[in-house]
Design the sequence.
């Protein structure tokens, strides 16, 4: 069975490999397709697409947006096959990036109040010029010996509800989906299993998102249990949504998650591409 991976991150956000190296790693893993879906940016897509090779994997330009969840909290929305330079999408992303720039110094200040010697420049250096996110804060905390590993950095300081966590302003779901669809992309709810909702609550949420333009759900995901995968495949079938799947590969920033293989048992069938492309091509642009 041919396999694909439609959820990965590069140095343009909080991944470790450059966009070109993500494409190359997918070729080495023998994948039929790979999508680059960096957080809140399309910055890496030009380099990613230029790494295409004859006989290599199909390269899918994507993005992952943090979106306000109706009723509180947040959800992640993937846009697959977005047109990287599309002006309205870029404008929307600039707003989100601005929100990150406002949030990051606040997190530095929280950490300093807690007695952690850390400077914004160090976090920016860890991000290497791409979008700054909490994994970069985590990396600095590990490098300074404040914590032993990335998991401890999130657990003690950075996870939602922890002392250094600061909310960032998010796009509304309808707005985010309009941006993705306007750029020619397919809208996919990322890792629904991580929301840890009762199946009926999740179904209601997904049905509501479908009304706002949702076209697919990521049923196959590194951290979904087999029972969740089955539940989500059933949900997609009932609601008439396309199915997607990916590892959420970040390189060493998410240890234990391998491209195309997740924690070792992830298998995303290439046959899913047909349904996703059908959704893409029915778009009114
Ligand atoms: P941000 O977009 O800056 O809020 O950072 C979110 C990113 O942090 C996610 O995409 C993950 O890569 C990472 N992350 C979030 N929670 C955790 C956690 N508990 N442990 C490790 N990484 C996490
Ligand atoms: Fe991430
Ligand atoms: Fe995500
Ligand atoms: Zn992701």
Sequence:
């Amino acid at each position: 069975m041919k396999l694909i991976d439609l959820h990965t991150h590069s140095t343009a956000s909080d991944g470790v490999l450059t966009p070109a190296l993500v494409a190359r790693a997918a070729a080495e893993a023998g994948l039929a397709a790979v999508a680059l879906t960096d957080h809140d940016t399309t910055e890496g897509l030009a380099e990613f697409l230029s790494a295409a090779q004859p006989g290599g994997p199909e390269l899918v330009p994507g993005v992952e947006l943090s979106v306000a969840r109706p009723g509180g909290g947040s959800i992640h929305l993937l846009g697959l096959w977005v047109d990287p330079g599309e002006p309205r999408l870029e404008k929307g992303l600039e707003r989100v990036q601005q929100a990150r720039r406002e949030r990051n110094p606040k997190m530095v200040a929280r950490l300093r109040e807690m007695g952690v010697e850390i400077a914004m420049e160090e976090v920016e250096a860890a991000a290497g010029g791409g979008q700054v996110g909490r994994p970069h804060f985590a990396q600095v905390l590990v490098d300074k010996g404040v914590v032993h590993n990335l998991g401890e950095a999130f657990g003690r300081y950075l996870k939602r509800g922890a002392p250094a966590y600061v909310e960032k302003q998010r796009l509304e779901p309808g707005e985010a989906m309009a941006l993705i669809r306007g750029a020619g992309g397919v809208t996919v709810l990322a890792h629904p299993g991580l929301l840890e909702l009762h199946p009926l609550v999740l179904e209601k949420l997904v049905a509501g998102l479908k009304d706002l333009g949702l076209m697919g759900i990521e049923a196959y995901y590194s951290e979904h249990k087999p029972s969740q995968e089955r539940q989500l495949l059933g949900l997609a079938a009932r609601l008439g949504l396309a199915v997607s799947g990916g590892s959420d590969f970040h390189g060493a920033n998410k240890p234990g998650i391998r491209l195309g293989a997740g924690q070792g048992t992830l298998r995303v069938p290439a046959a899913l591409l047909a349904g996703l492309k059908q959704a893409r091509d029915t778009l009114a642009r």
User: Anything to note?
Assistant: Residues 94-158 form one domain. The first helix runs from residue 19 to 28. The chain has a mean pLDDT of 96.
